[in-house]
Amino acid sequence: GCLSQILVVPLIVAPLERIKVILQTNSQIPGQYACLKHIIAQEGVKGVFKGTLVTYARDMPSFSTYFLVYELLRNGVFMDENGYISTSGTLVSGALAGIAGWAVAIPADVIKNRHQACSQSKSAFQNAVALFKSRGIRGFYLGAGPILLRAGPANAAAFLGYELSLKAISYTNL
């Protein structure tokens, strides 16, 4: 999970997250392409990559937790002695993995979003300190309720699709 993010974060995730955050916080920009042009005009090409390190800080521990929890539950709790896992076992494992992954990610996600939305040259650390001074530790969990409520069903469905795809592939290779 951690290694999967080495190239994905700087080349895809961080730039797209930056555009998303700017669009969410600036109603004057009409679309994604206009936002990309706006960022480059205001900050240069490096502005597109603002928040890459804090995106790593969010995604690497989060994806590691996500896959670890899924595999531990799937193989250690729900798999029977014949190597079979029920649909409900897959759904519960996926839901809990998604919740665990996002529980780890939320503080860094809040910092990342605030950092990427900030037009001044404040560092992510300065943004985190300002958040702590204004909201305390609870400030790092803003939006946690909706994120965690979404994480369960979304990841249950994702892992069910994953497991069904693996079964379909193995049946076609027989």
Topology summary:
Elements lengths: L4 H21 L6 H12 L8 H27 L8 H31 L6 H12 L8 H29 L2
Helix pairs in contact: 1-2, 1-3, 3-4, 4-5, 4-6
Task: Characterise the protein shown here.
The protein has 174 residues and is mainly alpha-helical. Helix content is 76%, strand content 0%. The longest helix has 31 residues, at 87-117. The model has no long low-confidence stretch (mean pLDDT 92).
Structural class: mainly alpha
Bin the strand percentage. under 5%
Distance between the termini: 29 Å
Overall pLDDT, averaged?
92
* Radius of gyration, taken over Cα atoms and rounded to an integer in Å: 19 Å
Oligomer: single chain
Give unreliable regions as ranges. none
Can you summarize this structure?
The chain is mainly α and 174 residues long. The protein has helices spanning 5-25, 32-43, 52-78, 87-117, 124-135, 144-172.
